[in-house]
């Protein structure tokens, strides 16, 4: 009999499949629901001859009933055919995947930095509630997630890049930097600092506040008294017992946020001209490149679902009560 | 009335009643300041256009790219427009969108969540499915899509933001209603013959309002940030000046004119900060634990 | 002979927005090595707070403000934290009321026990784990190896409480403080747990301070008993003596309420009123508003602990009439 955790890890992704199907359905519905002729939608703003339009109509089966079209659409998606970008003149899926790594790098770094710092600071703050440092930190955190992220990015650019000239102003790599090896890694890292710093602020503030509250709640629970009654040093009580329990909701939130970060990177990437999927999104908006937009919607939604599944599995690793349901 | 020695007594120890809501709120100085700021903003939003020194859309009221000083307290942009006047107009729009969107989301959420929580069954299940789906769809992205598809008028933007916000409100309301539904005062009213609508409207909803109000306060801030983000990306209503649009324009010229970025952004920041602080302060009023401090 | 534990003048206060709550207001008690002493009273009288105070487990806004807690000759209250932590779990251990909330839900039961042993005996992980299994065996848990690998939610209420007890006795403490150890359990399980505790005590030679509101347990398992009311000790006697002839009106009422209805003495069947406020206790004797025997001095002056008979004390003016000396106040 396989251990419960493994069963859960196998079960969870399967539960996500219906959700993914729903995403495809929404995708398709949005296309249909867009005002105007779907042909305009597919053509975007480019001109076309009458013949071409007729050809497209037939190819996409736009005269067919709704259900047939839906099945055709699903069939295409199953074959990983997400359409053709009008602006870039490239297969949508290829285009998106080529930009993925840049965004993942940015998001991943920001997530790791912000989560670690947030949890640490939150745990420390919880030990001295309502002290001066605690209040100051809480206020700072609140400020952190009241800021428009793109404004913060601009300010960062103004101060660190333009004024102090410590960091490059845009892009992921410098023109004259090496394209491989340590040189490239350092170059990318150098470019990474400001965008990651900007993007982390929001997430850091969120994680800090949540950890702090949850730690305070947990430290008031009964089993903490037991731990102290055993004579354990306070550090072990806080980090060994309390933190693990307080982390549960925090893990959930970090996981949820990761999904949003994946999709919401458009603002930061625009400010710093970072070549990721967010930038791609921005480029697709102006010319109303619908195939690309919809392709992005599908891919990003699926990634969010995957992130959620991963989060649930990690949660189960920490909390054994989950797998026994 | 006498009682035998209770094995587990209900009166733990007689403690005087907790201080009133206003007193708790007053203790949190930041929240009080925030409340004042919010009131000021509200007043400003109403009176706004009559107070600004210059016509926001007129170009050339001052030299191009002039740094902050007199008479242009926030400087001018590359077309010679007064930043202060434009930003003021932009703030009005942000507040308008924020309030409307948050209000709409709250209303829808109250309706759906209240129904789901009270009646349960199919409606409840459907609501849970819908909120799950919304949790998965990247929100900002959906807003972008909606606005890109349906046009960038102010109404559309408000609508899009409201669509994104109501599931969370509904969930909150639903859980509050579920908790309250089984409380004694509801039973009492039911026995007294109150109709179901009267029950919901008269007994349950008023008591659920606390967390909802806190949530709405935070929602307004979120809506304002969302609107600014959409405008920054070029999806704002082109017929109005928005702080997000100003920041978009600033992206190009901020090297030489830092004030075109700093001030508009700072206004959004301060407004949202005040709203969030207010929400926090209100939360303290509601949270029973806060009364122990 | 020197008492194992000697508490004098213990005061623990809680700071609230409305003033200072005097939860423990001048408590004296002692426990000799190897004996079982009960601390009895209704909820809110301060008995749990007394136990927590003597183990120095109270945290702000709760503070122990006065008193002397002599354990094995040393005063615990001024002790520094490190020294106190060495004693806790090792020489003095506590068994808590609700095993579900007092065990860490995310840690395996065996690990939680092994933690104590590893800390106080300096054992390696393997040795500590073995010691934990041994401790589980000593509390009569079947299949201790399997149970040690379980999480608390996988065990029944009785098993969880046994695990908590195992955690407390793992280092063979000299004093076991049990705070309502059976209150959260089914009646049938209660008896098993109490018998287990009694057996363990005999094996280890530990003394026990049993905090409870259940007089039945006191009668069966304890040697001496202190009765507590509104933060103070109001009566103290050997168990048999107390049940035979209670000297304080409150004790009489407790006993009467605990008896089955057909054996109840009519006039002491119920007490009027509510437990008093610990913020502003009643003037004079704290029990006087509810006392059926109150007379002139009761609402004016607080009675000290008087000695109606050798080895017994009672905080009641009824005994001053017979001219007994004041023992403590």
List keywords for this structure.
heterotrimer; A: 325 residues; mainly alpha; MetI-like fold; 13 helices; 76% helix; C: 329 residues; alpha/beta; 9-stranded mixed beta sheet; 4-stranded antiparallel beta sheet; 32% helix; 25% strand; globular
Using only CA atoms, what is the Rg of chain B? 24 Å
Q: What's the quaternary structure here?
A: heterotrimer
- Strand segment tally of chain C: 14
Biggest sheet of chain C: strands, sense, closure? Answer: 9 strands, mixed
Low-confidence stretches of chain B: 1-16, 289-293
Mean residue pLDDT of chain B? 77
The gyration radius over C-alpha positions of chain C equals: 21 Å
Order of helices and strands of chain B: EHHHHHHHHHH
* Beta strand % of chain B: under 5%
Mean pLDDT of chain C: 86
Helix percent of chain B reads: 55-70%
End-to-end Cα distance of chain B? 34 Å
- Strands of the largest sheet of chain C, in order across it? 6-7-8-3-9-10-13-12-14
Shape of chain B: elongated
Relative helix content of chain C: 25-40%
* β-strand number of chain B: 1
Q: Name the chain pair whose interface involves the most residues.
A: A-B, 48 and 45 residues
Structural topology:
The complex is a heterotrimer of chains A (325), B (293) and C (329).
Chain A: H1 4-33, H2 38-43, H3 50-59, H4 66-78, H5 92-127, H6 132-144, H7 149-163, H8 181-219, H9 222-229, H10 234-264, H11 266-272, H12 277-285, H13 290-318
Chain B: E1 2-3, H1 21-27, H2 29-47, H3 83-119, H4 121-136, H5 139-150, H6 154-181, H7 184-191, H8 196-232, H9 243-253, H10 259-286
Chain C: E1 5-16, E2 19-31, E3 36-40, H1 47-54, E4 62-71, E5 74-75, H2 81-87, E6 92-95, H3 99-102, H4 109-121, H5 125-138, H6 144-148, H7 157-169, E7 175-179, H8 187-204, E8 207-212, H9 215-221, E9 224-229, E10 232-238, H10 239-244, H11 249-258, E11 271-272, E12 305-309, E13 312-314, E14 326-328
Parallel strand pairs in C: 3-8, 3-9, 6-7, 7-8
Antiparallel strand pairs in C: 1-2, 1-4, 4-5, 9-10, 10-13, 12-13, 12-14
């Amino acid at each position: 009999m396989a251990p419960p955790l493994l069963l859960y890890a196998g079960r969870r992704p399967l539960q996500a499949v219906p959700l993914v199907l729903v995403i495809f359905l929404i995708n398709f519905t949005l296309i249909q629901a867009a005002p105007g002729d779907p042909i305009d939608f597919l053509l975007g703003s480019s001109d076309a001859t009458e013949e071409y339009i007729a050809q497209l109509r037939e190819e996409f089966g736009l005269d067919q009933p709704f259900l047939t079209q839906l099945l055709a659409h699903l069939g295409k998606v199953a074959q990983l055919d997400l359409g053709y970008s009008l602006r870039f003149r490239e297969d949508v899926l290829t285009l998106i995947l080529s930009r993925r790594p840049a965004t993942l790098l940015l998001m991943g770094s920001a997530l790791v930095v912000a989560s670690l710092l947030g949890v640490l600071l939150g745990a420390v703050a919880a030990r001295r509630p309502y002290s001066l440092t605690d209040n100051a930190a809480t206020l700072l955190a609140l400020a952190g997630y009241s800021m428009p992220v793109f404004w913060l990015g601009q300010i960062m650019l103004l101060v660190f890049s333009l004024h102090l000239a410590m960091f490059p102003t845009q892009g992921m790599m410098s023109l004259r930097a090496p394209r491989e090896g340590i040189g490239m890694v350092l170059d990318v890292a150098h470019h990474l600092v400001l965008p990651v710093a900007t993007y982390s602020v929001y997430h850091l503030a969120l994680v800090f506040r949540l950890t702090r509250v949850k730690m305070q709640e947990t430290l008031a629970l009964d089993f903490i008294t037991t731990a102290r009654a055993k004579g354990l040093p306070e550090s072990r009580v806080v980090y060994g017992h309390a933190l693990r329990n307080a982390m549960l909701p925090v893990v959930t939130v970090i996981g949820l946020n990761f999904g949003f970060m994946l999709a919401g990177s458009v603002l930061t990437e625009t400010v710093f001209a970072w070549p990721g999927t967010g930038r791609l999104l921005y480029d697709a908006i102006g010319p109303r490149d619908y195939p690309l937009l919809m392709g992005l919607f599908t891919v990003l939604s699926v990634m969010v679902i995957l992130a959620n599944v991963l989060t649930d599995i990690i949660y189960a690793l920490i909390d054994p009560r989950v797998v026994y349901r | 009335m006498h009682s035998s020695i209770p094995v587990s007594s209900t009166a733990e120890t007689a403690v005087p009643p907790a201080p009133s809501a206003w007193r708790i709120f007053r203790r949190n100085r930041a929240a009080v300041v925030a409340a004042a700021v919010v009131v000021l903003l509200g007043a400003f939003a109403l009176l706004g256009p009559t107070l600004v020194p210059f016509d926001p859309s007129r170009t050339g009221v001052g030299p191009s790219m002039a740094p902050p000083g007199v008479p242009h307290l926030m400087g001018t942009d590359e077309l010679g427009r007064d930043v202060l006047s434009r930003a003021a107009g932009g703030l009005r729009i942000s507040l308008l969108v924020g309030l409307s969107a948050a209000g709409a989301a709250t209303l829808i959420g109250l309706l759906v969540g209240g129904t789901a929580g009270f009646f349960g069954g199919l409606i409840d299940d459907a609501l849970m499915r819908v909120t799950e789906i919304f949790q998965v769809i990247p929100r900002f992205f959906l807003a972008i899509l909606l606005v890109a598809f349906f046009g960038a008028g102010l109404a559309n933007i408000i609508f899009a933001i409201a669509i994104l916000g109501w599931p969370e409100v509904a969930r909150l309301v639903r859980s509050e209603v579920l908790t309250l539904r089984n409380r004694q005062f509801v039973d009492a009213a039911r026995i007294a013959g109150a109709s179901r609508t009267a029950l919901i409207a008269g007994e349950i909803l008023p008591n659920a309002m606390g967390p909802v109000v806190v949530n709405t306060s935070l929602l307004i801030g979120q809506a304002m940030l969302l609107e600014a983000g959409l405008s920054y990306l070029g999806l704002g209503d082109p017929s109005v000046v928005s702080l997000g649009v100003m920041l978009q324009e600033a992206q190009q010229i901020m090297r030489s004119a830092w004030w075109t970025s700093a001030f508009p952004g700072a206004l959004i920041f301060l407004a949202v900060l005040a709203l969030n602080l207010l929400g926090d302060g209100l939360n303290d009023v509601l949270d029973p634990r806060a009364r122990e401090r | 002979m020197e008492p194992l534990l000697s508490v004098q003048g213990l005061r623990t206060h809680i700071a609230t927005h409305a003033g200072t709550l005097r939860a423990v207001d001048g408590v004296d008690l002692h426990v000799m090595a190897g004996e079982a002493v009960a601390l009895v009273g209704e909820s809110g009288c301060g008995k749990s707070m007394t136990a927590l105070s003597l183990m120095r487990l109270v945290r702000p806004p709760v503070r122990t403000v006065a008193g002397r807690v002599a354990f094995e000759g040393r005063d615990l209250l001024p002790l520094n934290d490190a020294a106190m932590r060495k004693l806790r779990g090792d020489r003095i251990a506590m068994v808590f009321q609700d095993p579900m909330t007092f065990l860490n839900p995310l840690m395996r039961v065996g690990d939680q026990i092994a933690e104590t042993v590893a800390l106080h005996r300096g054992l390696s992980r393997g040795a500590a784990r073995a010691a934990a299994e041994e401790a589980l065996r000593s509390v009569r848990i079947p299949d201790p190896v399997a149970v040690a690998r379980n999480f608390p939610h996988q065990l029944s209420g009785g098993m969880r409480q046994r695990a908590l007890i195992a955690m407390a006795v793992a280092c063979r403490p000299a004093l076991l403080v049990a705070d309502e150890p059976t209150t959260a359990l089914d009646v049938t399980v209660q008896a098993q747990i109490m018998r287990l505790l009694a057996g363990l005590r005999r094996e280890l030679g530990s003394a026990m301070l049993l905090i409870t509101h259940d007089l039945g347990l006191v009668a069966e398992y304890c040697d001496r008993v202190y009765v507590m009311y509104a933060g103070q000790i109001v009566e103290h006697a050997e168990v048999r003596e107390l049940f035979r002839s209670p000297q304080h009106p409150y004790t009489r009422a407790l006993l009467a309420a605990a008896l089955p209805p057909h054996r109840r003495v009519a006039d002491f069947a119920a007490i009027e009123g509510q437990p008093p406020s610990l913020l502003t206790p009643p003037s004079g004797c704290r029990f006087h508003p509810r006392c059926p025997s109150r007379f002139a001095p009761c609402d004016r002056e607080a009675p000290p602990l008087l000695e109606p008979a050798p080895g017994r004390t009672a905080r009641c003016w009824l005994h001053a009439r017979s001219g007994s000396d004041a023992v403590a106040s």
